[in-house]
Write a structure and sequence with these properties.
5-stranded antiparallel beta sheet
């Protein structure tokens, strides 16, 4: 298990569509070690998730976990989840505006619209199939990580570039209003 270097915006690996992982590859020591490294790297960076191409490996695997995360204290908990070859689809047209950041876009945040209700199908690290509905901010987190696997950054989804802000200025000028709004949203829809 290793904390790996995180690719930052501008690195070509972040714009690649990650390659599918076969069941045989998933069972391999190499891919299992990759999953462990993703978990270690996410924890070390205080991320809510990280995709393999963010650590320079363009394969369709990401990890997600929110447990009292200091970067995202308003996010509901998500147990450690490994998603391999995920397929995500919106269930309806309801959207929420979320102020997002990204480990691959250091010190920058911006508002994006995410689907409130999504269906996610994926394999876990043991090759077990999952077919789940994710809602609210949790749905947003899954969409963010699946975007990475398709070579899309949250910056590509920012409709209003005046919402872009450094973390320092977000904390100083925008955090309180965002946290109030998003806390009300979480109370209304759950996770």
């Amino acid at each position: 298990m290793t904390v790996r270097a995180i690719a930052t915006v501008g690195h070509p690996v972040l714009r690649e569509r990650a390659a599918e992982i076969t069941p045989e590859e998933l069972a391999s020591a190499e891919v299992q070690a990759l999953i462990d490294d993703l978990i270690d790297t996410m924890h070390a960076a205080n991320g809510a998730g990280i995709a393999a191409n963010q650590i320079h490996v363009p394969r369709r695997v990401a990890v997600i976990e929110v447990d009292h995360n200091p970067r995202y204290p308003y996010k509901p908990p998500i147990p450690l989840t490994v998603i391999v070859n995920p397929v995500i689809e919106p269930i309806d047209d309801e959207l929420v505006e979320i102020n997002e950041g990204c480990l691959s876009v250091p010190d920058l945040r911006g508002n994006v619209f995410r689907h409130v209700n999504v269906r996610v199908r994926y394999l876990d690290r043991d090759g077990v199939e999952h077919d789940e509905v994710r809602r609210g901010l949790t749905a947003g987190t899954f969409q963010h990580e699946c975007d990475h696997l398709d070579g899309t950054l949250f910056l590509d989804r920012v409709r209003d570039t005046t919402t872009l802000t450094t973390w320092e200025q977000f904390e100083r000028f925008h955090r309180d209003a965002f946290v109030t709004r998003i806390t009300e949203f979480v109370a209304r829809v759950g996770s």
